[in-house]
Amino acid sequence: MQRVRDLGRYDTDREAERVLRAVLAALGGQLIGEERCDLAAALPEHARRAFADQIPLTQPLDAHAFVDTVATALATTADAARWHTTSVLAALTELVGQPLTDRLLAQLPHGHAILFGRADLTTAA
Q1: Which DSSP category does 10 fall into?
Q2: Between 120 and 24, where is the model more confident?
């Protein structure tokens, strides 16, 4: 949580925790299978519950709808939710490493990489 607080420049642990839970809850609705299990295993207990308590959707949300979900959960604007989301997901990438992050992104619709602080590159067909 400290890394989320630092990246998001939150004033209090409570604010960072609230944002962390909202973003992880939204992410918990997006992932299935081995990646979901591996991510849950890598999270600290308090964060794991927010993530694992969510039932995955039948179809993952695109990046815009994902941010909108976070905005609704936090009762904030889309711009603020984008900041919150990238703060949490960048900290998550640091925690779990690039290999698992790559696997997570492979499961999510195009557009999510930027939320993880990465370029959203695709190969030309």
Answers
A1: -
A2: 24
